[in-house]
Amino acid sequence: MHRGVTEGVTLMLLALQTGLLDLHVLQRTFLLSIILFIVVTSTLQSMVEISDPIVLALAATGNRSPWKHLRGVSMCLFLFIFPSFMAYKLSHFFDMDFWLLIMVSSCLLTSLQVLGTFFIYSLFMVELFQDGGVERMDEIIYGVNAVSRVLEFLVALCVVAYGTWESMFGEWSWIGVSVIIVHSYVNVWLRAQSGWSSFLLRREAAHKIGALPRASEEQLRAHNDLCSICFQ
């Protein structure tokens, strides 16, 4: 979860690049308002990280309190609509550059994460009110998470590509290049490594499960065996 380090580092980099302390009051106020946008986007990301397990636990554990579900769903809707609105306003009122693209991409990633959370929450709720449950639920949830992670990776890759293009054909600075390198390592390389490792582990687990012999109906009746998960 974010602890304010991102905002502090971003403020330092922007201050070094723009000469924040030497600006006039009006220019300094405008730049600090941009910092405020960055703080808000980071806070929204922290809110997603806090609310995600709570909302999913409400549906997975079968909690039937309408008030708790209403609060969870309302928070998801807010965390989906507000970052999307911020991204639209930022891209509409300002000329697109690398720093603005980082803020817009952060808003879009927040909305994507909330959309994936809400979809999984809906699946759990359908399974809760459906007698037979949802077939291949585990595969569906894994697929939703995989699509969400792929979209996040593509957004981060687009940010790096735009930043590289701007550094090569537009304004070049050591600070901008440093941000691109850090962003490439943290949001592209590490995400690619994590996603690939998750895929390999998933494929290995599926291969091992597929290699197990399937019990016949006669064997199940003879041992009076039940599924340890659904007891059927």
TrEMBL record:
It is found in: Membrane. GO terms for biological process: ERAD pathway; proteasome-mediated ubiquitin-dependent protein catabolic process. One of its GO terms (cellular component) is membrane. It comes from the Eukaryota. It holds the Pfam family TRC8_N. InterPro entries: HRD1_E3_ubiq-ligases (IPR050731), TRC8_N_dom (IPR025754). It is a multi-pass membrane protein. Its main location: membrane. The chain crosses the membrane at residues 30-48, 69-86, 98-126, 146-165, 171-190. GO terms for molecular function: ubiquitin protein ligase activity; zinc ion binding. Keywords: Membrane, Metal-binding, Transmembrane, Transmembrane helix, Zinc, Zinc-finger. The keyword Transcription does not apply. Residues 2-196 form the TRC8-like N-terminal domain. This is TRC8-like N-terminal domain-containing protein.
